[in-house]
Amino acid sequence: MGNLLYIIAVILVIIWAISFFGGYVDSGIIHVLLVIAVIAILLRVIRSAA
User: Fold this and answer.
1) C-alpha span between 42 and 28 (Å, rounded)
2) Which ranges does the record mark as transmembrane (predicted)?
């Protein structure tokens, strides 16, 4: 499950970066993707440290 969250987070960050640097910043959903990805990465880091 942890690996799946990490993979999803990486994919979301890549999508966010492509859309951010591609100039498609009009939608707020792009930043929601970034927040979800950061939360998923933080969950993985916290769970692996415990």
Assistant:
1) 22
2) 5-22, 28-46
